[in-house]
Design goal:
Mean pLDDT: 92
Oligomer: single chain
Largest sheet: 5 strands, mixed
Distance between the termini: 25 Å
Structural class: alpha/beta
Strand content: 5-15%
Strand order of the largest sheet: 4-3-2-1-5
Shape: globular
CATH class: Alpha Beta
CATH architecture: 2-Layer Sandwich
Low-confidence stretches: none
Helix content: 40-55%
Length: 167
């Protein structure tokens, strides 16, 4: 599993690999950035294939990648993704590697999500990171306009295709 991190997140996670292995998960590589919210900093992760956003507490940064699968599972469950798909996806996330971002379009989408999250986070008490992740997943994204328009719809289509391939 590869996390393509922005400079803000790389500074917190430590050294990056320059030649990461190809991701074996259905959701592909993940892009991530740090949001310097107060009083609690947040990490914003986004799937390369679906642009699905997942927000989780950043601290402690040393355990961020180990905690991410649990938060991803919660978001996938909230989207109604079948348990078997979630378990398979999480099981493929046993080892992680961190690399710098390599796709300007994905960084642009990540920045758009960060900006939107900054504007609406007060509407989500605490903030409710799962609720905010779910709301962000309904936002239309230009890279998805020719397919399914928003990350939640793109995720549903990907899960459906994956299910059809398995049967």
């Amino acid at each position: 599993m590869t996390v393509r991190a922005t400079r803000k997140l790389l500074d917190r996670l430590g050294p990056a690999t320059t030649d990461p292995e190809q991701a074996t998960t259905v959701l592909g590589e993940w892009y991530g950035t740090a949001l310097p919210w107060r009083p609690r900093q947040v990490a914003l992760m986004m799937s390369d294939r679906t642009l699905l956003p997942v927000l989780l507490p950043l601290a402690p940064a040393s355990t961020l990648l180990a905690r991410f699968p649990t938060h991803l599972a919660a978001v996938l469950t909230a989207h109604g993704v079948p348990t078997r798909f979630i378990e398979d996806e999480i099981s493929r996330m046993r080892s992680w590697q961190v690399a710098p971002t390599n796709n300007r379009s994905r960084v642009g989408s990540l920045n758009e999500f960060a900006s939107l999250a900054n504007h609406v986070r007060d509407d989500y008490p605490g903030p409710d990171l799962l609720g905010l992740s779910m709301w962000l997943s309904t936002v239309p994204c230009s890279p998805l306009y020719k397919r399914h328009i928003s990350p939640d719809r793109e995720l549903a289509a990907l899960v459906q295709r994956h299910h059809e391939q398995e049967t």
